[in-house]
Amino acid sequence: MMMNVIFVIAEAAPFLKIGSLGEVGASLPIALQRLGVDVRVIMPKYKKIPDYFRQQFQKISEFKVPVGWRVQYCGLEEMTYQGIQYYFIDNEYYFNRQSIYDEYDKAEQFAFFSRAALESLAHIPECRPDILHCHDLPTALIPLMIRAFYHQDPLHYQLKTVFTIHNMANQGIFPEEVLYDVLKLDKSFCTESLLKDNGKIEYLRAALHYADQITTVSPTYAQEIQTAYFGCGLEGCLHQRLESPIGILNGLNHDVYNPNQDPYLRVPYLSAAQPKLENKLYLQGLLGLPVRSDVPLLGMVTKLVEQKGIDLLTHILDEMMSLDVQLVILGSGEMHYEIMLNNFAEKYPDKLAVRTSYSDELAHMIFAAADLFIMPSRFEPCGMSQMVAMRYGAVPIVRNTGGLCDTVISFEKDALQGNGFSFDNYNAHELLYTIQRAVKLFRNDPQVWRQIQKNAMASDFQWESSAKAYMNVYESLLSCT
């Protein structure tokens, strides 16, 4: 019997991708479909979805959605892309905006999306899902809403819910009045253990309590979020469950990140004897750095926020620049980090290039050109950039946390094993020492360096293994029905 799964997710490439969540929405359904799962995807019809796609959407229904005391319009549109049926929740008031996650009324916006996704199930032809797979904060209310509003509905009450935490720090903390004004919940749901914490409402808390299964995006992160440091105050909710969260590492789309055929590269890897060197020389010239083959080029493609370890980097940048290295940084984020890094770039014009306007093309160029790729994250639920870097032969330097710990094996020279370099403590000079160690190997032992690169490029992070792990989760839930 075919298993029917519906993803409810805020992003899915190529329609919309803000971060790794968009990669999950694009790639995991395809991998599951290859295993015989009937997968469909529900997401908002955002203004930012390109017109090329929006013009292909077909309207299949419209209906009303209750949001607290309001009743809001909802249109349901569909499109088939790469064999996957996508459904788009249409409401211009909530989704015809420039921002995706940072609107002033996101408590109401997320509540509408969650309720609209549940209401839409009755309007999707020939669809009787077994499982709703909900992803991160914008869908955190769905397991609760099923219990509160649909417990006697034959289409909904037997549904199993999987909730995947992509970032425990995204909790959805809102004023208490949201409970009544936006959610209109029965008082039985208004206990301290469910929604309220210190007089606030936490959407993620509801998901952790009501979802049938909690998963997250790497095995190490699944362990970390059960501790006070990484649990963000919600570790107790996980401890109260009978089962622990399941950590399933995200995959990497090898079609999108293919150095042999990447259209963004100056030299695809199959087209030259030394493709990384040629891409490196081109990028140096493009960014105004001295064109040198002998200097190690370090790269970063990142959000400029503390989570990504930018505070560690800025603390040691002067010492880094005393080394004979070049560093390229692409990313945007907190203004003080953007200003600080641009000031460093003015101070070291021959060693540091900073670009704070994101470009997918430039990101691919950096992966292809860099000899080393730096990710000193404070925490990293999964991380995708280190996987991309390894596929392009850019050896990662990471802190041992979350998915970085699960994907990067620190190199051991004696055994010639390992695909990168890592350090344990969140300490700027541990980062500096690890960079110095890697740069020394790059300069002094070309044969060993080539082995590290080969190990990195041989690392396999395809989505098939992730899909099989999710299949096991689905089958386990359905066997308990």
Question: How do you describe this structure in short?
Answer:
This protein has helices at residues 20-34, 51-54, 92-95, 106-120, 142-149, 178-183, 203-210, 219-224, 228-231, 235-239, 275-286, 310-321, 335-347, 360-369, 385-391, 402-407, 428-444, 446-457, 463-479, and strands at residues 4-8, 38-44, 58-67, 70-81, 84-90, 131-135, 160-165, 173-175, 196-197, 200-202, 213-216, 246-247, 297-301, 326-330, 352-355, 372-375, 395-399, 421-423. By secondary structure, the protein is α/β, with parallel strands linked by helices.
Outline the structure in words.
There is one protein chain. It is built from 19 helices and 18 strands. The model has no long low-confidence stretch (mean pLDDT 94). A nine-stranded mixed sheet has the order 3-4-5-2-1-6-7-11-12. Helix 1 packs across helix 19 (463-479). With 481 residues, the chain is an alpha/beta fold. The protein is globular, with a radius of gyration of 23 Å. Helix 15 (385-391) links the parallel strand 16 and strand 17. It has two domains: 4-251 and 463-479, Rossmann fold, CATH 3.40.50; 269-457, Glycogen Phosphorylase B (Rossmann fold), CATH 3.40.50.2000. The protein has helices at 20-34, 51-54, 92-95, 106-120, 142-149, 178-183, 203-210, 219-224, 228-231, 235-239, 275-286, 310-321, 335-347, 360-369, 385-391, 402-407, 428-444, 446-457, 463-479; strands at 4-8, 38-44, 58-67, 70-81, 84-90, 131-135, 160-165, 173-175, 196-197, 200-202, 213-216, 246-247, 297-301, 326-330, 352-355, 372-375, 395-399, 421-423.
